[in-house]
Structure to design on (300 residues):
DNA sequence: ACAGTACATTAGAACGATTATAAACTGTTG
DNA sequence: CAACAGTTTATAATCGTTCTAATGTACTGT
């Protein structure tokens, strides 16, 4: 299986943060290298987050993990391709990688570009129109753009 | 007024494509320069379109309109700020400028990145969650990602 | 019409995020 | 351990976009 579903019973990974990184990599068939283990830990320990490549690189540096920006990009893309992460492209040319891989939507707080999750059942999207000829539905993104008001 | 509403009676601009460009610029208080007139014509003559800066620059070149890419960007942004265009940021770092300024949503055909309009009442988005504290709702974008199937 | 001025256009450089390259390194297998 | 495939890395390249500052143009008042 490529990724885990929300409704599956918890297999333990969420509870054992330190052993988890290795298990995740094994599961998707990626070699557990120093860099991937460290990045997996940074990504999956603690709650869900929406993080850019630059930010993750900064977190790594901050945690004294020696890893190049190129590897951060490589790893994020591999994790995305393996279903460990979801990529959210939003704003001008910025990619966020979302550790919440369940079906959900987003608030996008401009202008600083912060993402906030919206549970999928908080938005009633009924009655989808049929896709254009020769195309098949991939995914529905609802982005609620909000701005600072205070 | 900053822009025209869907429900207003047609004031004639849609019917008189050639006189239209000038009228539109006047309406929003932009000087009718050679470049802006030419770009307005390319944008607003004919049906609605979703166009990138590069594409519009290409259309201009193709129509023997001498205009720099910088001016194409400047003009698109001015038109957007004036309410003549809507900007749709989607895909990795690409901006589309949408001549359909009415409230509506989009199919996004990957991987070539074509946009197709969805009338706003074809998608039932009810029951929006309340925005995060200190923020106020700006706009709701529904993007239905589809892929080639044939 | 003309000068004065604010606004607009432009080529080219700069930018920021991302992707490609190709050489050095490391995990795994036998 | 040897051998190989897979991985990491510094660095260059790319892409769309924005900035700069020099030149050109549209409007205003006389
Ligand atoms: Mn699934
Ligand atoms: Mn309106
Ligand atoms: Zn999310
Ligand atoms: Zn549209």
């Amino acid at each position: 299986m490529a990724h885990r579903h929300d409704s599956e019973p918890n297999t333990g990974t969420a509870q054992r943060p330190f052993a988890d990184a290795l298990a995740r990599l094994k599961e998707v068939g990626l070699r557990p290298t120093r860099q991937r283990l460290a990045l997996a830990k940074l990504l999956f320990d603690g709650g869900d987050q929406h993080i850019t490549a630059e930010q993750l690189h900064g977190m790594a540096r901050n945690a004294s993990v020696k890893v190049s920006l190129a590897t951060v990009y490589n790893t994020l893309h591999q994790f995305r391709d393996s279903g460990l992460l979801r990529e959210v492209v939003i704003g001008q040319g910025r990619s966020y990688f979302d550790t919440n891989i369940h079906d959900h939507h987003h608030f996008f707080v401009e202008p600083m570009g912060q993402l906030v999750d919206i549970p999928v059942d908080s938005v009633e999207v009924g009655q989808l129109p049929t896709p254009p000829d020769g195309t098949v539905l991939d995914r529905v993104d609802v982005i609620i753009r909000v701005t600072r008001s205070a």
